[in-house]
Amino acid sequence: MSNLNNLTIAKALELIDKKEIQVSDIYQDLLNSIKEKNKELNIYLNTLPDPLKEVKKKTNLKLKGLPIAVKDNFCVPEMPTTASSKILKDFKSPYESTVTKNIKKAGGVIVGKTNLDAWAHGSSTETSDFGRTRNPRNTNHLPGGSSGGSAAAVAADLTLAAIGSETAGSVRQPAAWCGTVGFKPTYGRVSRYGVIAMASSTDSPGPITKTVEDSVILYQAIAGHDPNDATSSKKEVKNLIKELDQTIKNLKIGVLYLDVEELESIKDIYQEQLKVFEKLGAKVEFTQALDPRYAVGVYTVVQRSEVSSNLARFDGIRYGSDRSHFGDEAKRRIMLGTFTLSKGYADQYYNLAQKVRTLFINDFEKLFEKYDILVAPTSPGFAKKIGSSEGTAMFGELEDMLLEPSSIAGLPGISVPCYRDEKTNLYLGLNIMAPMFREDLMVRAADAFEKNTPWNSWRNNS
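Above: the chain's sequence. Below: its structure in token form.
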């Protein structure tokens, strides 16, 4: 067999169990592919020097030593953790994030650290101090962000799966643009310990994978309570594997945001795709929610405020280089956040934003009294061209507009490919949201959609 780096996690585990392949065979194809493609795509900032050395220790564990890429804002001792900022260019963490530790415990190998918007500030992966990442589906276009490197790694088959982090779209949006699956858990479901903080009240680590099944496999490995994270939930982690291949008959689905003006050009595509749920027996209904454009202002104020606080620690004394090495985007966010938290303005901006945030939370609670899940487009359109984010201060907020409401409410969401444009080879994503800690409902719907549509390139080719 050849091109084993194209395998999904589930298929790789199956073939290994049947002794049809060895894990080392996958690494041979994977490392050759990284050597061939990474220079053009600029996905990996660092790779593990000798991953096969780690594999030997893990072949009896659940993930069998399979390669997992990790966004470079997760602390690992073996490689630098830069957050794509030159401030941390040579920083090696003395401790490890809970997420990467859990992946290793489950038998995964952290094969490399992927590019991102510096400090996770953006939705393009163009603000990285180490150069932009390109979209493997069409290299003239962006991969999205801030977890653009992780999404691109999966789309290019330069890993079997990856980990990203989402503050307001940074897992789901790049997953949609790269034609992959992006799974954002409930806030607090996955530990933030050892993740370089961006906006602490919404940061959520999550898997970016080739299929829904793979995202569930990784989710089960990383989810759970962590005493090192005060925001980590003690709720029991449900076994989402049981939700695969289940009926969605009579599932009540509310459709959001298709009346938003920015979606006019792709509205018909989504209306057609929603018929899949109806054919499978679900009850689909178009409904109204708070205008997502209001969430742009809420998220901008809250996120900038928390950024200004979190980046204060990078002063050149405790970590890395001094603050003169901050990029333009980081400086803008620090200044705006400091202003919104300053005396005389906190009530006018930050506290008001938190009140409007509560309105979004209450609005979702009312919607979930009527519907089991909510669905909406992941992004207002296809991946933008290289350079689109430059000189556009609100690029990320506008591209993440449809995801910001669920993120500021702490809800789980998963983006699955729902359309491919044949001319450009670019994808659209469908965002499926559920009440807090009801990842089981959204996984069931996502899995059913994926298996009854032609849009997943790995499933379609298997």
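The chain has a mean pLDDT of 96.
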